[in-house]
Write a structure and sequence with these properties.
75% helix; globular; 528 residues
């Protein structure tokens, strides 16, 4: 009996320890460790330089580090945790793993829990360095322990939610999208619960003396405090003592429940026959007479442009969806500026509606282009068609820009919406201010940097190129913002504007270099 138990234990832990050995030799993990340490030292330097501007520098330093860690773990959840099983489905190796005698528990522990262990190590190596915040003032050791416990509970939840989404979905893209959708709910539901509780207390004058009111108010308060943002803020508040907060309890139990659900669902997933992971997306088949307009039809004279317009960017259906999306954005801006209360003397300001639409349309267009850029080369690599594509009697330059042009046609509604907005009330005023605001050009170059960085990452990563590029762009903006703020102290607004213009020029040069990297990378990928 004991021998059977030991044999079962070795079968479960075999893939787990193999994954740990593989990840420990991976250059990627060592670079992540180095990156986190660099972030800590950079934050420490910022606090040291600005220590005379605020009190309790240790508390400020530790709070910045904790929120950066939470953002880092969130990005990992979308790109690192959510692909543990779906990547095996795409490579058609999940059935081979089950045929090798590895149990479902062994596969999940080896593929998911090993990654959770690696990320936990990334956070654990920071603990001795964050103890420096105690010596800087404003922080107690118990607050550090409380914050790291909250972050660990959040990591456990995110890892197992990603595992469940990866088991339920067949492709990395669907798993990452489902995890992102869950993250939106995780962050928004507590906010709505807090707003609802405040409404009941202030507007309806509910009190805890009523048992029914007390039950509902307590439940809303528990939900509002179950998010990592609230718990980290409370853990870094002055005088906080360690408690088993709703966030720690709910996230840990939620992670356990998601792991058990993934374990129960895995048996059905592993028995499914292998299917092609490629998809027509929004492109209908021509045999359907009702949706014939949305079919790809016959190839154009530029076949690569035709292919990427329909099968990467969505084709005519994608064009219609984008038009509706920008129309909906303008409707939301109109609704936000419309007086919904009775006020006879108030008239809607169309300039504010136009400026609000232009403010959100720029990043929305950049995100749309970046999502297309994450697929334009990655689908060729995953489908192993890049080598055949490079054998065509066309230069690499023509092939690359033909594919980019096909996606650019599909994103035309965004450019058209921006052009139309300049003709609306207040639009020309915004256009005249563009040349006089270096900050806008810096923001615009950051959006271009996001697009180019997504295309670069898609050539090196299996999945999560857009998420990692978004995190890199945000980190770069924070870094350059702090540097410019420190360099412009005492120099006035002119020096700050000059630094913004210089940063915009630097990002433009980086984007130009990304084009060269893509053109040089393509032939080497085609030889694999």
């Amino acid at each position: 009996m004991l021998q059977r138990v030991l044999s079962f234990g070795r079968g479960i832990s075999a893939l787990f320890f193999r994954s740990l050995r593989t990840e420990s030799r991976s250059l990627r993990m060592h670079l992540l460790w180095l990156l986190l340490l660099v972030v800590i030292y950079f934050t420490l330097w910022i606090v040291h330089e600005t220590t005379t501007s605020f009190g309790a520098p240790g508390l400020y330093f530790f709070r910045c580090v904790m929120y950066l860690n939470a953002a880092f773990v969130t990005l990992l959840g979308v790109s690192f945790f959510s692909t543990v099983i779906s990547e095996e489905k795409e490579e058609d190796t999940l059935g081979l793993m089950t045929m090798a005698g590895i149990s479902a528990l062994g596969i999940l522990l080896g593929k998911s829990t090993s990654r959770l262990f690696q990320v936990s190590l990334l956070l654990a190596i920071q603990y001795p360095f964050t103890l420096l915040a105690v010596t800087m003032g404003g922080l107690m050791p118990v607050q550090i322990a409380s914050a790291y416990t909250s972050l660990l509970a959040y990591t456990i939840l995110l890892a197992n939610v990603g595992l469940l989404c990866s088991v339920a979905c067949r492709t990395n893209r669907n798993a990452s999208g489902l995890t992102t959708f869950w993250l939106v709910g995780y962050l928004s539901i507590p906010a709505f619960a807090y707003a609802g509780r405040m409404y009941l207390l202030t507007e309806l004058q509910w009190t805890t003396a009523n048992p029914l009111h007390n039950l509902l108010l307590t439940s809303l308060d528990w939900i509002a405090r179950s998010t990592i943002i609230t718990d980290l803020y409370e853990a870094t508040a002055t005088g906080h003592q360690f408690i088993w907060s709703p966030q720690i309890v709910s996230n840990t139990l939620g992670g356990l429940i998601c792991f058990l659900l993934a374990l129960g669902l895995f048996g059905f997933v592993a028995k499914e026959p292998s299917t092609d992971t490629s998809s027509r997306g929004l492109v209908a088949r021509r045999t359907n007479r009702h949706l014939r307009f949305f079919s790809a039809g016959r190839a154009w004279s530029l076949p690569l442009v035709w292919k990427d317009f329909f099968f990467t960017a969505g084709g005519w259906a994608g064009l219609i969806i984008r038009c509706l999306l920008y129309a909906g954005l303008y409707t939301l801006c109109f609704a936000a500026n419309r007086p919904w209360h009775a006020n006879a003397g108030y008239t809607i300001r169309w300039d504010d509606v136009t400026h609000g639409f232009q403010f959100f349309a720029h990043p929305l267009l950049a995100i749309d282009i970046a999502l297309c850029a994450s697929r334009v080369f990655h689908d060729e690599i995953r489908g192993q068609t890049l080598s055949s594509l490079l054998m065509l009697p066309e230069s690499t330059l023509n092939l690359v820009y033909s594919k980019i042009f096909g996606c650019a046609i599909a994103t035309f509604p965004g450019f058209l919406a921006l052009a139309v907005s300049f003709c609306l009330p207040g639009g020309l005023e915004f256009l005249r201010e563009l040349g006089d605001e270096p900050g806008f050009w810096w923001w615009l170059m950051n959006l271009l940097f996001l697009i180019h960085l997504t295309a670069i990452y898609s050539l090196y990563l299996r999945s999560g190129a857009f998420v990692l590029a978004l995190g890199t762009m945000i980190g770069t903006m924070i870094f350059t913002g702090f540097i410019m703020a420190l360099l412009s102290i005492g120099g006035g607004g002119n020096e700050h504007q000059a630094l913004l213009g210089l940063a915009a020029v630097g990002l433009g040069l980086i984007c130009a270099a990304c084009h060269a990297i893509i053109l040089l990378r393509m032939p080497s990928l085609g030889q694999r």
